[in-house]
Amino acid sequence: MQQFIYFSEDNGPFHKTAAFHEAKQYLEDGGRFLVLSGIWGSGKSKTAMEVYRSVTGKSPKIIRNLEKFNFEGENQSLIFDEVMSGSLSNEKMKNLQDNIKLWLENVSIADKPRLATVSKGKKPWFGKVSYGRRSGLHNTSIAEDSLLEKESNGKTKKFIIFTSDGDMKSTFALITSVPIKKLKVINLNDSLTKGDRTQILYSHFDFSWPNKDFSKIENLAAKGKNESLGYPEISTLFCRCGGFQKQEDVDFFENPLRSLKAYLKKMYHSETNKFFMLVYMSLNHMEVDVENPDEKLFHELETCKSYDHTQAELSVDTKVEIVQHDEIDSEKIKSLISWEFVNKAHNSSKYRLQHDVIKRMTLIVFGAFHFGKLLELSEPEDLKGWIKEKGASTTVKKTYGDIMPSLNIDSDKWRQYK
Question: Which residues pair with 129 in a beta bridge?
Fold first, then answer.
C-alpha cells in the first residue's frame, strides 16, 4: 500500500537534465532571454523554476496572466509561463513588447551595466524600427554585443525565461528585440537523453514508492515516446497514481491520455464527490482554497445530477455536499482532494492541480456528461481548441495509439457551443 504523501510545489522530485545544465550555463554567462519549448508535459515550467532557483538562489517570480501583471518598477528576473500563444492579438503583442522594454530600462537602472553601442541619438532599448509597422510591433536593431552586457563584477544579469509549446522563434525575437540567430531556444523533447529518461522515472518512483524495487520498472524509461504527452509528466502520473501501475505498464506509457481519461471516468462513476472536487479546481484556476473557497461555484456543481451516467445534465439533485447549512467545511473539502493529482501550495491553505493535463482531461469527462454546465461555468477562452464537432475524422474510433485531448460533440451540442 502506498504511504500517504502531501505533494507540494516545492518538495517534488526533479532531475537536472542536460537541458537544465544548458539553460543554467546560458543565464550564468549573461543570457538575458531564454525560451524553453516542448510538448505538453515535457517539464517546461518545472525546469524553468529550478533553473531560476539555481541561478538566483531565490524563489521564482512567475507570470501566468499578462493583463494582471504590473511591469511598472519591476526589475527582477521573471518567468513567463505559457503566456504566449499563436492567438495573441497584435495589441497584446505590442503591449508585451513595450513592457519588456520597460523591464529592460528598469533592470539597466538597477544593475547599471555597460551599455552596448547603438545608433547616435537613439535610446539603447529602442534602436531602429524595421519590422511590423502596420501592426505597431517593432524590431530593434542593436550592435553585435548584447544590449546590456554582463556586469564587470561577474554578477549574473537579470533575465526572463519564457515557456512555450512551440519554438515560436520569430515571435519571441520580435517581443524581445533579439535577432533570431541569437535567440536561445532549448527544446526539452529534443534534448532528453537516455540517461535523463531513466533518472526522471527513478526520481519520481523513489519519491512516491521508496520501498519498491525500481529495477522492475526501469525498462519503462525506453517507452512513452509519443506526441500526446511529454515523458516527464507521463513518469509523474505513473508514479503518483497507483491505479496506473495496476494497468498494463506498456499501455499506460504508450497511451497516457487514454489511461487518464478512463481513470477519471471510473472516478466519476465510483467516487463522484472526489471527481467533482477535481472539476471545481479545474474551473477555479486549477486550485481550491480550503479556508476561502468559492461557495457559488460549489453550489453550481451541486446541481449536477450524477446517478444517470448516460443522460446526465442539469438537475436540482445535490450530490456534492460541501456546503452544509450555509457553511463551508474545510475538512470535508480536504477529504475529497485526490492527492495523486494535487499539490499543496507553500505556506498557504491553497491546493493546486499538479498539471494542466489533469484540468483538461477532467473537463473532457465532465463535459461528456454535463455539457451545458461546462459551457455555463467555463470562460470561453478556456474552451478554445479542444471542443470539436464529430465528423468523419472523429467518428472512427481508434483502437490503438493514444487519444487526442479533445471533447467531440454532436451537431446539436456544437450549435449550442457556437
Answer: none
What confidence tens digit (pLDDT) does each residue in 246-301 have? 765 457 888 999 999 999 999 999 999 999 999 999 999 999 999 999 888 888 88
Phi, psi dihedral angles at 195 (to 5 degrees): -65, -40
Number of helices and strands (H, E) in the chain?
17, 12
Task: List, in sequence order, the alpha helices (H) in 112-193.
Answer: 169-176
Is 170:156 a contact under the CB 8 Å cutoff? no
Give me the sign of the Cα torsion angle 284, 285, 287, 289: negative
- The residue among 370, 356, 360 whose CA lies nearest residue 403 is 360
CA distance 51 to 31: 13
3-state secondary structure of 177: coil
Residues across the chain? 418
Cell of 63: 507570470
**pTM (2 d.p.):** 0.79
* List of E strands, 154-284: 160-164, 184-187
What confidence tens digit (pLDDT) does each residue in 46-96 have? 999 999 999 999 999 999 887 777 888 888 999 999 887 666 788 888 888
Which three three-digit cell numbers place residue 94? Answer: 505590442
Query: Pick from 93, 96, 102: which is nearest to 73 by CA?
Result: 102
CB 209 within 8 A of CB 5: no
Which letter, b or e, does each residue of 327-352 get, where b requires 16 or more Cβ atoms within 10 Å of its Cβ?
ebebebbeebbbbbbbbbeeeeebbb
